[in-house]
Amino acid sequence: MPKTSIDLEKYHDLALQKQKEHRLFLAALKKTAPKNLDKIVQEVHNQVFEEIDCMACANCCRTLGPLFTEADITRIAKHFRMRLPVFEDLYLHVDEDGDKVFKAMPCPFLGADDNLCSIYDVRPKACREFPHTDRKKIYQINHLTLKNTLFCPAAYLFVEKLKERMG
């Protein structure tokens, strides 16, 4: 198991309590974004990930299935030396939005004992970019950032630290 565990319930409860506050902050940020916001966002993101070890959490891998692009499917199927339809039949289904996602969670490639991703080098783009807290023009994904605070301690801390930094 990971060295230090993360109290997911604590972060989830905090995120629930602060949903309205976070929503208002992110909405205000959209209206009053300083010119150097992307730089500030990157600094706050880096600071958060000095504190949070994803392998002590992996909640995203247990609860939030990534959207698979055609490029993701091709890359991962090739990694397994599988034909595309075989990979898709084995792991994916089309959800109500028409997106290709895992048939079931947790992620079948998540190591149960160590939270390591067995396909890390070829993982889906959505996994590589999660929780999207280092994105340029972060205010364009306020809805996603807010949602991610409920599942990801790093996303919650990111909003808290960004709020603190912006005064």
Architecture blueprint of SSEs:
Blueprint: H1 8-17, H2 19-32, H3 37-51, H4 59-63, H5 70-80, H6 84-91, E1 92-94, E2 100-102, H7 125-129, H8 142-149, H9 153-166
Antiparallel strand pairs: 1-2
Helix pairs in contact: 2-8, 3-9, 5-6, 8-9
Task: Explain what you see.
The protein is mainly alpha-helical. The longest helix is centred in the N-terminal third of the chain and has 15 residues, at 37-51. The radius of gyration is 17 Å and the shape is globular. The protein has a two-stranded antiparallel ribbon with strand order 1-2. It has helices at residues 8-17, 19-32, 37-51, 59-63, 70-80, 84-91, 125-129, 142-149, 153-166; strands at residues 92-94, 100-102. Helix 2 runs antiparallel to helix 8 (142-149) and helix 3 crosses helix 9 (153-166). The chain is built from nine helices and two strands. A hairpin with a 5-residue loop joins strand 1 and strand 2. InterPro entries: Puta_zinc/iron-chelating_dom. This is Fe-S-cluster oxidoreductase.
